[in-house]
């Protein structure tokens, strides 16, 4: 609740992601500076990967009971989130954790599995303008 005379600071972040395959990390940067990191729990990537790839977030996906659902629908809160990158085979998908013990969407054939709460948090911070750098 704001009161007369109080100030409201509105942040204007410029997030980007760095996926570090060998370190099994997804690092969130704001204006190029470290903001937060997430640990990759499962790696399922297709064949040989190039040393460095620059791409972007292609879409945020939400699942409930095996069906894709849209942002803003009544089913969206508590849904299983995925973040699909424009690079083929790269999906940041949700794995069950204490905060989300019932991830009902089976993982994709390829991608990087993170704790469901981490993917949910990330899905609220990135969008289709978010650049992504994938490294070894």
General form? globular
Average pLDDT, rounded to a whole number, is 93
Distance between the termini: 46 Å
Q: Please, how many helices? A: 1
Structural class: mainly beta
Give helix and strand order, one letter per element, not per position.
EEEEEEEEHE
Task: Please count the beta strands (DSSP E, at least 2 residues each).
Answer: 9
State the helicity in percent bands: under 10%
Order of strands in the sheet with most strands: 1-2-3-8-7-6-4-9
- Give the biggest beta sheet: 8 strands, mixed, barrel
List the uncertain runs: none
Q: How is this structure best described in words?
A:
By secondary structure, this protein is mainly beta. It has a domain at about 40-130. It has one helix at about 115-125, and strands at about 15-20, 25-30, 35-45, 50-65, 65-70, 80-85, 90-95, 110-115, 130-135. An eight-stranded mixed barrel has the order 1-2-3-8-7-6-4-9. The radius of gyration is 16 Å and the shape is globular.
Quick summary:
The chain has 136 residues and is mainly beta.
Present the secondary structure layout.
Blueprint: E1 15-20, E2 25-30, E3 33-44, E4 52-64, E5 67-69, E6 80-85, E7 91-95, E8 111-115, H1 116-123, E9 131-135
Parallel strand pairs: 1-9, 7-8
Antiparallel strand pairs: 1-2, 2-3, 3-8, 4-5, 4-6, 4-9, 6-7
Features:
136 residues, mainly beta, 6% helix, eight-stranded mixed barrel, 45% strand
């Amino acid at each position: 609740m704001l009161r007369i005379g109080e100030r409201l600071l509105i942040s204007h972040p410029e997030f980007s992601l760095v996926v570090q395959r060998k370190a099994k990390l997804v690092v969130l940067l704001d204006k190029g500076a470290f903001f937060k990191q997430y640990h990759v729990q499962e790696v399922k990537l297709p064949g040989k990967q190039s040393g460095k790839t620059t791409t972007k977030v292609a879409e945020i996906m939400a699942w409930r009971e095996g069906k894709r659902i849209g942002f803003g629908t009544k089913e969206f809160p508590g849904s299983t989130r995925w973040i699909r990158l424009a690079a083929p085979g790269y999906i940041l998908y949700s794995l069950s954790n204490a905060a989300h013990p019932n991830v009902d969407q089976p993982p994709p054939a390829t991608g990087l599995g993170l704790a469901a709460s981490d993917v949910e948090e990330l899905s609220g911070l990135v969008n289709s303008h978010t650049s992504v750098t994938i490294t070894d």
